[in-house]
Design goal:
This protein is mainly α. It has helices at residues 4-71, 76-110, 116-146, 152-188. It has one domain.
Amino acid sequence: MKTLKPFSSALVAALLLAGSAHAQSQKGQIRAPDRQEERQEARQNAAERKDDRMDVAELERVLERFDKARDRRHNAAELASVDNRLRELLRAELAEGRNEKAQARTETRREWGESRAENREDVRDARVEAASQSARKTIARELNSLMGARSQAQLNRKRELIVELVRLGKQELRQDRQEQREDRKDRRY
């Protein structure tokens, strides 16, 4: 019996080492797709940030055009052109917002259970996206009611709403940078 004890201990140790080596090789196989997903997500996030910067720049140009048209004694043709461009931008922004909101919800569901901190971040991101979309919808409805309006009070209100859209866009850019920092921090761990 004494000879079996060292043999069984050696067998158990060999099995544990083999299991550990197998687990390590499995980890390596899991990590490669994770890195690939992270790179894909980073490329997608970079494209979204670039798009967001372009959207803010375009809204700022529309605001500048609006101010010039208004200063030129309510240049009706230019104000109508600004109204049309605003409609186009708002349609695109609302569609983009719906997509981002859906992506945030999908990411929250897909990554649920990773870590509490990451889950909280995903839920927060989804809520922020929903609030931003809601604010844009509200602004779009009010701007739509002001399309073609020419009174000084209506033009002032329209300008305030355009400024609010610019502010929302810049806020989204800040949030994107914050998420980028969080993602980098998460990758380090």
